[in-house]
Amino acid sequence: MKELFRSLPWWVRWVAIPAIVLVVFGGLITSVLTWVMSLMFKILVCAALIALLIFLVRKFTASSSSGGGW
C-alpha cells in the first residue's frame, strides 16, 4: 500500500487526495470544529462568570466585615 501511494505523482498525494477528503468529510470536519469552538467559548464564559462571582463576593465580604456591619 505504501509503495502504491509513493508511486503516485506529487500533485495526487498533496492536492487531489486532500481535496477529495475535504469534499467528502468537509461537513463533518466543519461541524466538529464548530462544536469544539462553541465548547471552548462556553468554558471561557463560565470561567469569566465564576471569576466575577468570586471577585464580587470577596469585595462585598471584605467591605462589610471592615465596616462594622449594620
TrEMBL record:
Pfam families reported in the protein's UniProt record: DUF5326
Keyword Transmembrane helix: yes
InterPro entries per the UniProt record, alphabetical: Uncharacterised_SCO3924
Transmembrane segments: 12-33, 39-57
Keywords for the protein's UniProt record, in alphabetical order: Membrane, Transmembrane, Transmembrane helix
Protein name according to UniProt: DUF5326 family protein
Organism: Streptomyces carpaticus
